[in-house]
Amino acid sequence: MEFITNEFLDINNIKKILVDIKFHEVTKNLQQVAAGKLPLPDCLSVEEISDIRDIFGWFCEVRPQEILKMLESVFSAEQNQTFDGPNWDGYKVIAAIERLIHADLKTKQRFVVLLMSYIFYEEFHYPQPETGVYDIAGNKFDQLKWVYRYWFNQLEVPEKGSELKSFFASQDVNIMVKEPTSIVIPPIPQEMWKRSLSLSCGGDLLAVDVLTPKNTTHLFDDITDFYSSADIVSANLESTIDDDKPFGRMEVKGKPFIMNTHTSMFHKFRNDAKINFFSTATNHAMDLGEDGVLKTLSVLKKSGAYYSGTAASEAEQEDVVVIEKNGLRVALLAFTFDLNGYKVPDNAPYMVNEVRFNDICPDYSLIEKQVAIAKAKGAEHIVAYCHWGWEFEMYPHVNIVKAAHKVIERGVDTILGNHPHVSQPAQIIERPNMPPALVIYAFGDFVSYHPNSRNSKLAYLVKFDIVSYFGAKAAVTNVRALPIYIVNAHLDADNYDCRIVKFENVLKNPDGYGLTELEKNQLPHLRDKVWNEILSPLVAVTKNC
Fold this sequence. Notes:
about 550 residues; alpha/beta; Purple Acid Phosphatase, chain A, domain 2; 6-stranded mixed sheet; globular
């Protein structure tokens, strides 16, 4: 999901947001920034940091009307005007304001987003509990927060008071099912007492922008040994595939960007990465309407891949995917929390499996129905691919954790989640008289281009076995995780080297992948804070790779 920033980052919208603000109550944060006591994002230049501190300090000394006057000057079309206002700190602050007035639009927007993030500090810096119906597509303030988290600060804290940080730090996803140590005599062939298959999964496939065939020659080379060697190789197809429409991101007034992937990139997913199952229930599923869904399904069907989450008919929706391998049957379901403000046609509610996980009161009846169908088809293990959560937040919300338990209670055995465009932790849900359920909240990006988001560049893949001994309930075992780094190195003009590489290789040789100096400087943070701390439940199972 991305937004047209010009639609909400304009002076009229900013003035509406600020109209009821009591500036004397929010100047404390601005003063702390000015004094260097509150940190600014590490992606800012030294000059930007200096100018922001000067201007924020000046804001604390003038009347609110002067702040609004200054912001109007910043967004004025007159590029040659000078600033005429109170002079708090002599020439220095006036020069900082004039530099901002003469800057390009993106720089001005970045400044305003940062200003909002310190005026509305709690709302921008901490996850906010959902209190009703999720609707970021229709909420300009939430869109401002989204831009802040994408451009500057992927939230690395959970909801206040949730204790989720310590909860996830305590999780152990190293599930191992013991193989029987002795077999009755005479020996029984293994296929009679052990049935198993392997499943691997990655995050969002969002091949737009620079992700074209010419820029992705070696896209999967470094990870196929781990990822592509499973019986079921899966990922989340987060765009339509319609070659009759423009490739990439398309602007639509009042809506998030439409995302459309070219068939040539889909073929790379199938042929190079060997992906044979795609979850298609995402917030972008209805981007190109009913026709876009049908054309995407046509491409999937012609490729021979399995898919779940969208359907061309009610019968197709109810014919849930059950894959049989080595005598073991596994069902693969997929659901999305939202459709970016679009709706499925009234006469075709089957087109997308929508279960509004983010809402305060989701309806799980569709999951119950599909679980029942899967069991009727003989499924012994049910996997649900859940598209849910909030983008650029490193921890799931409390209500998403509750939703995971609700989904498991309805008969799902494993949850593979995604959507936030950053990775989130995992957990085990214990079940009485049943094998434990594995929940991955978010793998993060996979094939995507989010150059402004530091934490989107680190993601992970997971591979595990589903096994049944002597006809017992099938269970997840031998969980393995592979941290990956998403490289989109700019070579020249419109030429890039886009590839997915093992994170350990980037740490060993940061100069070998065309990373910018900023990206290289961010690697220790990704290793220490993101992987070893926030994603610590996965760290133990990297040893199993």
